[in-house]
Design a protein that fits this description.
This protein has helices at residues 25-31, 72-82, 99-113, 129-139, 150-154, 156-165, 190-205, 227-232, 239-244; strands at residues 3-6, 37-41, 61-65, 88-93, 117-122, 143-146, 169-172, 184-188, 216-217, 221-226, 247-249. By secondary structure, the protein is an alpha/beta fold. It folds into two domains: 3-66 and 189-219, Rossmann fold; 70-187 and 222-249, Response regulator (Rossmann fold, 3-Layer(aba) Sandwich), CATH 3.40.50. The strands form two sheets. Strands 5-4-6-7-8-10-11 form a seven-stranded mixed sheet, sandwiched between helices. It has a four-stranded parallel sheet with strand order 1-2-3-9, covered by helices on one side. The longest helix has 16 residues, at 190-205. It is elongated.
Length: 250
Amino acid sequence: MLQICIGADAPRHPRGEAWPACNRRPAVKAATATIPIVFTTGFDPVRTGFVASLSRPGGNVTGVVFTTTDLAAKQLGLLQELAPKAAIIAVLGDPNLPELEVELRDLEAAGRAIGRQILVVKAARETEFNAVFARVAQAGAGALLVRGGPIFHNRRRQLVALAIRHALLASYTSRDYPEVGGLMSYGPSLTDAHRRAGIYVGRILKGAKPADLPVEMATKFDLVINLATAKAIGLDIPPMLLARADEVIE
């Protein structure tokens, strides 16, 4: 027997059910100390206690990490290309996620480097979304960078609708947002991460031990642009940016 758990930003189970969530580390780890577990997650598996280290995970757990923390500055640069006239760029994050503070330090440094003011706003629950977007609009921000997290991902339709309502050029961390009308996303390819996790599953079924399989980091990243949304709001996507897109939603 083998158990698979999927990170919070993952797509739904083929039958519409929820995959076991990797961010619930105590429950997953407590379930078994012997049955092999293969995960895909956007969280740091060492910090959250899934594994002892990336190179030597130990125990019965291994998998693939698709964290977006190291991509924050790149995501800001792409958003600046999309919205070159935006003097103020808002960043929306979930304060419950420890990775956020690292991302914010990188984003503020990157903002200074390109001469943009970074406005940090936080929302820990969906009931705070309306107030946060009102604050962003009041501050005169012209663009919005939405960080990752299960709350945001689960309420992505609401976030996309609010960004459009407030005329914010918004970018996200997962292609799941452009699929529901979001303007742009740049982040790890979850399809590739799950494919690589599947390879680990195959190796374990053939006798390999999770402890001997290093945790892998995402290596494929997708830039997705929703051209239909851009046209609907009267935005011309810069040709150079459009040419670099891995996927264009018409």
